[in-house]
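Re: the multi-chain job from yesterday

Posting the exact lines I submitted so nobody has to dig through the queue logs.
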Amino acid sequence: MTDHRTLDVDSVGDYVASRPELAALIDVDTLQVKEVGDGNLNLVFRLHDADGRRLCLKQSLPYVRVAGPSWPLTPERAAAEARGYEAATTWTPETIPTFHGYDADRHVLAMQDLDGWRVWRDVLVDGARHDGIHLDLGRHIARMAFGTSRLGTLGPAHRQAVAAATNVELCEITEDLVLTDPFLGHERNEHRAELDPVIAELRANPRVLATVARAKEAFCTKAEAFVHGDLHSGSVMVRREEDGSSSARVFDIEFCTYGPVGMDLGLLFGNLALAHARWEALALPADDIAWLADLPELVWDAFEAELRALWPDRLDRSLSDEWLDDWLERVRLDAVAFAGCAAVRRIVGFAKSADLESLPADLHLQAATGLLRRAGGWLEDPDAVSVARLLR
Ligand code: SR1
Ligand code: MG
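And the result, structure tokens for all chains:
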């Protein structure tokens, strides 16, 4: 039977003690607990003991955290994130936090606490760069794309995985908040009135709307691979290594679903565009802005290189080299479309991001207007947009 009691800092210790596989990872008697959930949906607890051992617990709530009980969600949705972590553990364990299992009764996921790492969105808001970060990101997306598509999983197993990965509630949120409301209008949207004219232009442009509709169609019908589904800079932890390189860990996989491979790339690019608009508005050093503008291409190149390295091991031998080239072109098109949707939704729709929201009003307006126009260009003619030129 499921148990809807939510955890708090005082009850986490008893909870861990009741789960022997977790109690083996950390000393319950010297436990320190902090609730750090700053996302839109869940509770997140960071735990450490006197010996410095650490653990992270995430519990889904029966409603959208940022909206409150008036927007109910079933806490059972957390099972989707468990499936996401299981798939990622199989295909790309080095680019995610170690997954320690899911408690379906209490809707609690347990994973490695990434001490010393920071949420990438926060780092980007601070104006800091992480050279080399594209390598882990491209690798992560490529390995998931290869492993969970027909390249790495053959027919019946792929069909069963698609069927098992249904994530009804969170996919509906993506359909609405990312792919519908910002472009059709909805009372949930929130934006400064000064942006009305540029938003109206987007909504009146049939080519923009057709691209958005194609992205939505792809999201709803193209079960290519098990995608993260919400791969923005707030779903990535980053760390600078001693040798000057950077590492990334992808987390918060709750919106995962079988979908178009270009979706994760595009969501990431659209969110990098938000950071880029912030850095430009703040007139950060030109070198740093140029690094950020190069990132979509660097991520794409790392993605493509990893995919081509895995390609000789594909299971479906009917997929030819020509097919790969053609498919990568379709992935690019999807990525450009999702990039546009991701950028527009964070300016126009429900659930904002700190990149632009924390700017002073005049800079917000300047950055938001510029990015809405830029994203509008991507959506108007995605065929003409190379990933390399997204932010240049
Ligand atoms: C109601 S939740 C809104 C957003 O939070 C998540 O981060 C996803 O981006 C979702 O669209
Ligand atoms: Mg999230």
